[in-house]
Amino acid sequence: MKFALKVDDKHCWGCKACEVACKQEHRAPTGVKLIRVGEARPGKTNSEPDSRFIVNLCRHCEEPPCAPACPLRAITKRDDGIIFLDRARCTGCGTCAKACPFGAVAMGGPGEPAWKCNMCLHRVENGLIPSCADNVCLAHCVYFGDARHIDRMIEEKSWLKLRLEGGLASMKIRVGD
After folding, report:
1. Residue from 153, 136, 139 nearest 4 by CA
2. CB burial string 79-117: b at 16+ within 10 A, e below
3. 6 within 8 A of 130, measured Cβ to Cβ
4. pLDDT band at 158 (very low <50, low <70, confident <90, very high)
5. Residue 173 — pLDDT band, cuts 50, 70, 90?
6. Fewer CB atoms near the end CB (10 Å): N or C, the chain?
7. Is a pLDDT exceeding 90 seen at residue 115?
């Protein structure tokens, strides 16, 4: 089976819970993020102010440009689709970061090894899911699973989609009288 980690940007609230979970899991140094949430563009929906968020992380490409760019071959593609960066082999030269079109490879300090999302390989190999997808997202928009079925997983959350798109907006919570 090939794994996929996908974020449904359309429904992201920008809470950054995925960033925090990842940061805690990997103990990445200050300034290094393996997943980044940023505001894409303020705009309007139905003449109401609206913000959209873009979540950036390694796409675990079918043909990852970062892998052949590494002179030490510290980045490999596994049979399960996970693009793995062996930080013990990495010298921090930065060629992988320059080769990644998504800016998903983070560099620490000078001469330090690079960082990138490896789908929490240590968790996956123990039957767990990546920390960012482990029910921490308040909008439930981070998905992990079989690459062939991940889009269907998103579509099957129709109740959530309805709530997020305002279909349940008529529900009101009353406090007091």
Report:
1. 153
2. eebbbbbeeeebebbebbbebbeeebbbbbeeeebbbbb
3. no
4. low
5. very low
6. C
7. yes
Tell me the HSE value of 152 on the side-chain side, using a 13 A CA sphere: 5
What pLDDT is stored for residue 177 in this prediction? 47
Cα torsion at 173, 174, 175, 177 (round to 10°)?
A: -170
Kindly state the helix (H) or strand (E) to which residue 41 belongs, with its residue range: strand 35-45
- Gap between the Cα atoms of 160 and 135, Å rounded: 14
Q: How many degrees, rounded to 5, is the angle at CA 68 between CA 63 and CA 72?
A: 145
Q: Cα separation of 24 and 113, whole Å?
A: 19
What is 3-43+51-164's CATH topology?
A: Alpha-Beta Plaits (3.30.70)
Average pLDDT, rounded, for the chain: 86
SS3 155: helix
CA separation, residue 136 to residues 46, 84, 94, 130 (Å): 30, 23, 31, 10
| Model confidence at 13: pLDDT above 60 | yes
Q: 52, 40 in Cβ contact below 8 A?
A: yes
pLDDT tens track for 71-105: 999 999 999 999 999 999 999 999 999 999 999 99
- Say which amino acid occupies 74: A
